[in-house]
Amino acid sequence: MDLIDIFKTKNIGDSVKVEGWIRNHRKQKDFGFIDFYDGTSFKTLQVVYDKDNKNFVEIQKMLVGCAIEVNGTLVESQGNQEYELKADEITLIGTCDETYPIQPKRHTREFLRSVAHLRPRTRLFQAVFKIRNLASFAIHDYFQSHNYVYVHTPLFTTSDCEGENQMFKVTTLDLENIPKSEGKVDYKKDLFGRQTFITGTGQLHGEAYAMAFKKIYTFGPTFRTENSNTKTHANEFWMIEPEIAFCDLKGLMDIEEEMLKSVVSYVLENGHEEIEFLNSFVDNTLKEKLEKLVQADFVRITHHEAVDLLNSSDINWEFTPDYESDIAKEHEKYITEYYNAPVFITDWPKDIKAWYMKENSDGKTVAAVDLEVPGAGELMGGSQREEDYEILLARAKSKGVDVDSIDWFLDLRKFGTCYHSGFGMGFERLIIYLTGIENIRDVIPFPRTPGSCEY
Amino acid sequence: MDLIDIFKTKNIGDSVKVEGWIRNHRKQKDFGFIDFYDGTSFKTLQVVYDKDNKNFVEIQKMLVGCAIEVNGTLVESQGNQEYELKADEITLIGTCDETYPIQPKRHTREFLRSVAHLRPRTRLFQAVFKIRNLASFAIHDYFQSHNYVYVHTPLFTTSDCEGENQMFKVTTLDLENIPKSEGKVDYKKDLFGRQTFITGTGQLHGEAYAMAFKKIYTFGPTFRTENSNTKTHANEFWMIEPEIAFCDLKGLMDIEEEMLKSVVSYVLENGHEEIEFLNSFVDNTLKEKLEKLVQADFVRITHHEAVDLLNSSDINWEFTPDYESDIAKEHEKYITEYYNAPVFITDWPKDIKAWYMKENSDGKTVAAVDLEVPGAGELMGGSQREEDYEILLARAKSKGVDVDSIDWFLDLRKFGTCYHSGFGMGFERLIIYLTGIENIRDVIPFPRTPGSCEY
Fold first, then answer.
1. Separation CA B392–CA B358 (nearest Å)
2. What is the structure's pLDDT at A375?
3. Min Cα–Cα distance to chain B from A311, Å
4. Which stretches of chain A drop beneath a pLDDT of 50?
């Protein structure tokens, strides 16, 4: 029986059988205690045995990390647990070599990254990856209960409208011996017959489905070639990209706010023990921060207003805020601290934003919105999309997009076009926010970063 | 308001506002009917207007495919619908060009593949992709409610233990001008500093997490380089790979059976209208087949027994069944028809199965299981995994696996190893089964097959 179900349904006096691993083992001359876990519950169960156990000597040799089966009865606990397990039988299922690196002591996260296949067994990573799991499901649950259709957009693409240098190339050709034709790579011999990339977004395909189902979302792995070794960059990560027909920028902000609150609430409710642990050992402002977010009224200001706010402060900015430029990390921090709440910043200068965003009537800004969250920075980025065929075509051309390769995308503006909006949320950024963990390498099971694709 | 919520909560006499598209438009001299849909409900809403509408002339010009907003009152329907919408106002949101290929008539699926960005607007593909969505959520829902942790295993790998010719290569190098060092590709200049592939399975990484959380599953895109243009092959598809610690082959079959029944039940309950439609227009045995599966007792036979069964029949097999060989499509069909139920075939000859499967005590077979389902063939494939370090190492070496690149995987057998099992289910195969659609190209939003990576 899973430990989590035992905690939910079993009481003192009940007989139970559990299978799992030894987290800690304290031995006395005539008895012993095993901290037992099976990974289904964040809580461990204390197993007690003594000389009445016929394999007492064997049990005492069981090391931390061993896999065991325990049969016994739940009895009143001497400690602060609800109960403990008095073992009738403890059977060794799998030994654990003495070199086992996960010992009951504090390991550095850097060290644990070097044993990425074993680190999920630590309390810290049990908490992190359980919360990752909870947040995944909370996202699906939110969108499903609001009539969205989950769409699996393709990763492979032969269109390089994102700029081929920002995408990974995929091929079945032998790189040691690339076939050439007239001095160029002969892609006719490649599996798809053309040069193929891994796309960095499902938005364009998502829009096609939003024009059929009204509300859709994607949730899948995403790739960036960025050669950047920072705490917040990984080359492989997961992303959520909802797209909603008949939705303007205001409607989009309503959705973003509702969705985020719903996910945070779900995690607080279902990951109570994990959050408590992280609050104690990683960031003691975590729980309060999350509880506050659920209650907060998100602020909505324009980029213009944000720049005015920044310029009205006494701070000597490293990057001087202005109406034509992006907002720097220092600015994000100031703004969220000023309002002490999540802040939507809308209506950004068009030259620093993507070609598919809808231009505002001022001719200078686009209907884009970034959500800045205290302690996390930019968590979501979205926009209303340009729905007019001619305007979108002109915008794409002016940005050097190969419009032939996206004729199908432009088609969406010919056949029943409508105002519509969408946003993207980097899933790892959300997990960093939900756990208080700072480094993206510690919220991805097996992270891929420049120079590092181990395991 | 979403159409699905109107159908759920609104009654005759209620005022409503809807936004969506025109599926069909029948005009009379003094009035007209619009088949209105927004994609949130499979049902359409009939909108009625007449000369009292001040833009009557304009409305009559609205073509199939136009995006509109309708304000009106729900009134009793003349037809067999619960109600229809008497329009006070119909506003054009987006025009639709006359060349719109999705007209209210029957289109061939081949033609619809050539407009993959528009085909989700047809009734057929609304049904298929809604069921794909429902099945996705049903899978998450099943595993979440049974204490599994959803794990995002990486797609990029530098280990070629699957055989590099079966994996796509990924690179940031310029293929036109590959840097070389001593005559070989200089992968030091590639982003990860080594040759990198896209893995075809998350199983190995999944096992590492099963040894921490007991029960895990993956659900993500998967890639195969197979140059095979058949109805059942795609180069990019989605796969589910659960992995369960302290679970033997029998336990695995219990889980597979329970999970499949749970998913089919969910789809039948929540995709009622879509299933009815597919049953009427695609495969009139569909509904009965699915309802039967939920009630069925899945049969469990060994490969040996299956071969005996095949040989005891009068059929002149194209492939003669024998104890050492795989089972052909004709055999699968016979077996599921013979039992008239899903059949688990267990204990396969070890030479035709993977190196990580647990060898049975007979020395000839492994603890593998394939699930054969009437009308779908093999739907899941799984096995108990070899949990002994030395045996696994020897098996890997004997199959030519580069064991250095999977030392971390072998480690799992050193530190608290336990009997454990897992299976893989191709998600598209499930959708083919759930919809009665035969071609994998018609159950993937934008399919990627050899020579074809459009959109």
1. 8
2. 80
3. 40
4. none
What is the predicted ipTM?
0.97
State the pTM of this model: 0.97
B window 337-396, beta carbon within 8 A of A:
387
Q: Which of A40, A198, A414 lies closest to B214 in CB terms?
A: A40
Helix, strand or coil, per DSSP, at residue B55: coil
| Under 8 Å between Cβ of A243 and A216 | yes
The rounded distance, in Å, linking the Cα atoms of A395 and A411 is 15
Q: Which of residues 55-94 of A touch B (CB under 8 A)?
A: 65-67, 69, 93-94
A48, exposed or middle or buried, with CB in 10 Å at 0-12, 13-18, 19+? middle
For residue B80, the model assigns a pLDDT of 79
Question: What DSSP line would sit under B312-371, residue for residue?
Answer: TS----SS---TTSPPPHHHHHHHHHHHTS-EEEEEEEGGGS-TTBPBPTTSSEEEEEEE
Q: Report the alpha-carbon distance of residue B14 to residue B311 in Å, rounded.
A: 67
| Kind of pairing between the strands at B149-150 and B83-94 | unpaired
> Is residue B156 a contact partner of residue B197, using CB atoms and an 8 Å limit?
yes
A240/B contact by beta carbon, under 8 A: no
d(CA A22, CA A333): 43
pLDDT tens-digit map of B306-348 = 999 999 999 999 999 999 999 999 999 999 999 999 999 999 9
Residue B412: its chain A contacts at CB < 8 A? Answer: 117
Query: Residue B166: pLDDT band by 50, 70, 90 thresholds?
Result: confident
Burial class of residue B335 (count of CB atoms within 10 Å of its CB; 0-12, 13-18, 19+)? buried
Q: Which of B155, B172, B175 sits opposite A171 (nearest CB)?
A: B175
Give yes or no for B8 touching A (CB within 8 A): no
Backbone angles phi, psi at A323, to 5 degrees: -65, -15
